[in-house]
Amino acid sequence: MLHSKAKSSPTTDENVEMIEIYASSNFAEMEFLTDMFDEESIGYLTREMEMSMMPVHVGGHDEVRLAVEAGRVEQARGLIQQAIVDEAIPGDGHFIEHEE
After folding, report:
1. For residue range 34-50, what is the model confidence (pLDDT) as tens digits?
2. Where in the numbering of this chain does the DUF2007 domain appear (predicted)?
């Protein structure tokens, strides 16, 4: 069973569609990305997916999912990719692909 906690950026408009683009269990990596999105004025939403304390699963790790404003998906993906190339983040996470 998963529990989730959500946090949004100060610039997020609740009327704008948000699309999940990246997920990672490295919380420092996500902190860097949300700071970067704040600097770029990209609205985001993070959802922390925590595994239940009940021993009903084997393995699994807590994960944070990062969603951005629908109109800024490509820009946000590019910034994440550049941060990985520049080794600003380790790239421990993975991109979430969506059908268009």
Report:
1. 999 999 999 999 998 76
2. 18-83
